[in-house]
Write a structure and sequence with these properties.
By secondary structure, this protein is of the alpha/beta class. Helix content is 53%, strand content 17%. It is built from eleven helices and eight strands. Strands 1-2-3-4-5-6-7-8 form an eight-stranded parallel beta barrel, surrounded by six helices. Helix 1 (10-18) runs parallel beside helix 3 (39-49), helix 6 packs parallel to helix 8 (140-154) and helix 8 (140-154) runs parallel beside helix 9. The two termini are 38 Å apart. Bound molecules: erythose-4-phosphate (E4P). Residues 6, 26, 28, 107, 127, 129, 131-132, 163-164, 183 line the site of erythose-4-phosphate.
Length: 217
Amino acid sequence: MKFFVDTAEIDAIAELNDLGMVDGVTTNPSLIKKSGRDIIEVTKEICDLVAGPVSAEVTAVDADTMIAEGRKLLEIAENITVKVPLTWDGLKACKTLSDDGHKVNVTLCFSANQALLAAKAGATFISPFIGRLDDINLDGMELIEDIRTIYDNFGFETEILAASIRSVNHILDSARIGADVITAPPAVIKAMVNHPLTDKGLDAFLADIKAADIKIL
Ligand code: E4P
């Protein structure tokens, strides 16, 4: 399973990247706003840091302008993936850009039918939003399962990029179901290391190291 980090914060990306935890990055307008940076500048910095795909989202809502914006974003670096919303215009932009050989991430996916359309339009990635479905008492993981089944039924190569991840359990469940990629905030990826028995066990070992004065160096 590939790990994308869902942020435009350079330091947070660099820290995880140094540990080999970053297979790619996703950004969106809200994350760019949060960074307080210019979209082109910060996206270029991320692309310089990370070898894998970096999703940069268009701002337009009509297909022609989305395509023009996508082409401008693609000039930033070779590893840009153009992110478009799951609207009819977004699907048109997806088809044009993917026919031209570019990677496209279709975002704001909330149903399996939408995911089916995105695959047919040539999407490289489909981004189903788990957390936002859970927020309104729907089942985000059920959507990931449905998309996995449908894509496998027909051999679609579009990768399932589980997004809007809010907890470590979202990552675990996505891995169990077979999502190709998860994108999660740095804090959620880092929280995967936590276990109370690890802390308890380490405390006991440290006490014995002190009591027995065990030294290696
Ligand atoms: C990533 O591509 C999405 O834009 C992001 O995961 C959305 O997350 P949110 O629902 O927490 O804003």
